[in-house]
Every structure is written in C-alpha cells, then in structure tokens.
Fold E74-like factor 3 (ets domain transcription factor, epithelial-specific ).
Amino acid sequence: MHLLDILPLNSKPGGRFFLFVFELVCKRVSFFSVSMSSPCLSSVLTHANFTMYETGIPDVLSQQPSVLPSINTLQISNPAYSSNINSQWYRQVSPHCWTADNVLEWISDHVESTKFDASTLSLAYCTMDGHTFCQMNLEQMIGIFGPQLGPHLHESLQEHKTKYELQSLSGSELNETCQLLDNFLDNLNFPLLSTIRIGQAEVAVSKREFDHRDDYDLPSLTMEPMTPLRDTEYLSDNQSDSEYSSSSNSGMFFSNLGSPESGSGESDPEFSYPLISKGHIKTEKEESRLKRPRGRPPKISRERNSSIYDCPKKNKHAPRGTHLWEFIRDILIHPERNQGLMKWEDRREGVFKFLKSEAVAQMWGQKKKNSSMTYEKLSRAMRYYYKREILERVDGRRLVYKFGKNSSGWKIEEIGMGM
DNA sequence: GCCCTTTTTCCTGCTT
DNA sequence: TAAGCAGGAAAAAGGG
C-alpha cells in the first residue's frame, strides 16, 4: 500500500487537502515509530512540491511508484519537519479542551522532538482527552510515559496551561502581541529542508512550501476552493517574481526573513493562498500587461472567504486595534520574548533597531490579517509617524528608528522596569 | 454619506 | 547590485 494510495481520490497532490492528509499520515506514522528512509520522504515531498507549483518537472512518483515506501516502512527523517508542519494547532486551544486526538497529536510532536522510542508506549494511554490529562501530576506522567518523556510532556502541558490562564487574566492587546511572538518564534526553529536533487533539477524545499496553516489560518483548513487575492489579478513588475515563484507562510520565519544583517532574503508575502495553479502563474508578458492599480486593494476576497479570516465582523464602534507603533513597542518592551526580532539601541533615548525586519513585518501582517505585509510597507507606515512625532528619524542608520515625543509606554519610568 | 485618520500599496529616486 | 530609505500619490477601511 502506498502513501498516495491512502489519500482520497479527489485530493490533488500538492493541494491543501493533500498536504493536510499527508501531514496527518506522517504524524501518525512517525508516532507509531515505524520507519521510512529519508530519500523516500524526499521523493514524497518533492512530488508534492513540484505538483503544487506546476514546475513542469516530470512527476517522479507517479512514474516510479516503486519509489514510494510502504506505509509501515515510513520513517520521518527530520523530526523537526513533522513536529512543525502542522503549526502546532494545540497552541491555540486550551489544554483542557483538547480532544483525545489532539492529545495524541501533541504527544506525537513531543515524541518526535525528543526522538523518544514510541514503540514502548501503550496506546491505552493515548486515548485520554485534554481534561483528563490536565489532572495528572508529574509522577503520574512519569509513571505512564517514563522518566524521559514524562517530565517533558508535563512541562509542556504546564506551559500551555499557564499561557491560557495568563491570557484570561491580563490585557488582551499586549497578550495578543505576546501570543503572536510566541507562535512566531516557535516556528523560527524550523530548519530548512535539505536541497533535493532530481536529475539536473535542484529545488530547495523549505517548510514554507508545505506549512500552509499558520496560527491564524487554523480554522480555515477546509477543502473549499479559495478565491485568490487580487494579487493574482494584478501584478506589479517588481512583485511578480517573488510572489509567484514560491509561496510562503506566516508560520515560516526562517533566516531569510531577517534584515540583511541576519542574512535576509526577499519576503514572500502571498502565503495564505496555497492553491496556486498554472492559471495563477503568469508569463512575463502577462505580468507587465496586468499592472496592479495603486492603492490598497479592496477587502472583498477576504470577506468572501470568511473561512480564511475566520474572525467575527468588527463592530463599527469597537475600539481600534493596536497601532503599528504600539505593536513595535510591545515587542521591544518584552525582550525575553522578541528573541532577536528587534533590539534597543539606546533604551533611554528610545532608539531601536529591526534585526529581522521581514519577520516583524510578517507578524504585523498576521495581526492585521494581511498576508502580504512586507517590511517595505511596514516601513512606509513607520515613516508616516515622523510627521506626527510618534517616531523620530535616525539619519544614516538602516533599520533604526527612535520613539518620538508623541509615543508612550516604552520609557523605563512608564513601565516601571529596568530593561 | 461625508470627513478624518490610519494604514496599505505602488512608485520613483536616492543612499548605503 | 541589492537592500533600505524617503516621500508622493491613491485608495481602503474604521470611526466620528
């Protein structure tokens, strides 16, 4: 039996549902400690990737079915891949509300990350739901999962529980930023998959091309076709290449999202719409013909696809969300959480620097439910703050800004802590 | 519905 | 040469 054989017939390889099923299969397979050789995994991933972007490279798998491993010889060669590929949905749900399946998946991630031999586990303990799990103390965990995995699971569970308790206690705005940081940084650890060679073709496959569910997109995992953003209709000359040669995801955050100093690459914002078909990959001539109009594109596609941006409609009189400068400030005043995204250059003067500019932009985009946010756009918004004296110019220094006299909440005296 | 504010998007030119 | 900066222009969208 082949991996692809167990997928639903109507799940197109490379499509969202295909990846979802593939992901689930991988997770289950790895959890039950069966093995697959890494070249086989590479083949599967390559297949999904090539099919997804219609590169024209021959369909290796369909032509060589023998390359596919049987399901019980699968082995996840890169534990980080499988443990991160699903964006760890359980970070969005209180552990008390986890279903047995959720618990199983959570355990699975830890099994993979700790390289624990899951074959020693009894399945009988894997049918507990989150509520039952939360009742267990450290000793009980060790009793069931052993001295290696038990404490690990216990610690992780406590973290999740604490996070949700804190969330219900403290300010929602600040928490949102912190949560965003947490989710974001969790994904920073994901290593790039190795470069895969097929014949003469060499394709660098990264997690961003597989992980299409960021933390905000979790509820959107449906099989319904999605209407592409207007970006698929209008293309600017300087955007098209990066936007259609690959897809990305807000849950990606690799080193290539940083500033030049952190080895940054081009941000690739159109990531929440993975259903890229041939029809969306335009030729150079088409690109130059179909220029995107100036100004902000209408929100039509987002509202039409409420499953993508699954959030309640904003009340007209609801208070505005956090402003950009406040979002930046919140990152800065939590240095233990921002982990190298930004740093203070001069804490007292309010001078700060973007270290991973594109990553911060992606976070801002996540917050605003805007998948195409880039540092370029973010920085434009930042420059508007000069006039209002929320920010001051710092001449001659790239990625460096300074809080102005109309900003607040960042001074040591104001927040009452030494940083 | 109008107006204002706050972005967002695109663009050109310049600097590092 | 690429990345970042500066700022104009236009538009979206929320709120008064």
The CA atoms of residues 220 and 308 of chain A lie 5 Å apart. The longest helix of chain A spans residues 138-169. Residues 89-169 of chain A form a domain with the DNA polymerase; domain 1 fold (CATH 1.10.150.50).
